[in-house]
Write a structure and sequence with these properties.
The chain is α/β, with parallel strands linked by helices. The protein folds into 2 domains: 1-168, Rossmann fold (3-Layer(aba) Sandwich), CATH 3.40.50.720; 171-312, N-(1-d-carboxylethyl)-l-norvaline Dehydrogenase, domain 2 (Orthogonal Bundle). 53% of the residues lie in helices and 10% in strands. The protein is built from 16 helices and 7 strands. A 5-stranded mixed β-sheet has the order 3-4-5-6-7, with helices on both faces. The chain has a two-stranded parallel ribbon with strand order 1-2. Helix 4 runs parallel beside helix 5, helix 8 runs parallel beside helix 12 (242-251) and helix 8 (168-190) crosses helix 15. The longest helix has 23 residues, at 168-190. It starts with a helix and ends in an 8-residue tail after the last helix.
Length: 319
Amino acid sequence: MAAHVASKKAEMEVAMLVRDVDVCRDINETHFNSKYFPEHKLPENIIATTNAKDALLGADFCLHAVPVQFSSSFLEGISQHVDRNLPFISLSKGLELNTLRTMSQIIPHALGNSRQPFTVLSGPSFAVELMKKLPTAMVVASKDKKLASAIQQLLASPHLRISSSSDVTGVEISGALKNVLAIAAGIVEGMNLGNNCMAALVAQGCSEIRWLATKMGAKPTTLTGLSGSGDIMLTCFVNLSRNRTVGLRLGSGEKLDDILNSMDQVAEGVSTAGAVIALAQKYHVKMPVLTAVARIIDNELTPKKAVLELMSLPQVEEV
């Protein structure tokens, strides 16, 4: 996203807050991030820093891409440098374990400012394709129409379309739960259960996301849009998906710890799965596919047993 924004306007300074000193030096000296996308040159108006105060000083917008489970502690640590009127654009998809908070709740809580301007950006968007400037469409959601419009202006380009929405709940919940569904899709693939099974599973998962999200106040139309069906298709059916890869390897018989230890990026669906059971209970929604993923991750169920359980559920009317 830093590369995308920076390439739109050469005179715009884009500060990139990174943790790794070597990555920081790399970006500033060579304009390459050798850890991620080493083959893509970054615009020269990106300035990397490991200092939060420097990164945030005089900022007009803040794009937040820290994984959900680490966002609270990270934001609390930098909160003294965040202007109370600085608009946040959240790119992180998931639910905080134990609290069940979404990013729209985590950010103001961690910063100690209930009025921190907030938007969420979501939709089917693999980072590598955005780097290649391939056509992409996303949605920005905010309760503040003016702010959503400002983010549209900031991000829209000839290869990136930005729709706007006021349904923050719908965009956040579908963005979080599609990662859990992608793990299920990967399991089906890893077990070689076929295309019929894949289609049935993803259709059922979409229904479960819709049942829960609408109970939480989401609009049904959001769930068939870019942040719902669009993101689900991308994450469930394409090999670039981290969450699908976790499922694929689980379905092939690998242990979860071995899979996670071998990955250098976060698969948000693993943590979010733990929150699914609590949400299903809280909102009295039956979610057999998504809760099965949580039980597989918690070692309560093997993928094979989960399939047998799901196939032996009562035959019901479609809703």
